[in-house]
Amino acid sequence: MRPTINLALVSLFIFWNAGDSQAGFIQPTTASTTATPSLNTPAVLINAATGSGGVAYAAPNPGSGGGGTSWHTGDNGTTPVTVTFDFASTTEKFTQLHVWDYYFHSPLLWTLKLYSGAGQTGTELIDYDFSIVPGAVSTSTRHDIDFPDIMGPVLSGILETRGNSAGGGVGLAEFGFTTAPPPVIPEPSTLALLGLGTAGLVIRPRRRRAAV
Question: 123 in the Ramachandran plot: left (φ > 0), alpha (ψ -120 to 50) or beta?
Answer without folding.
Answer: beta
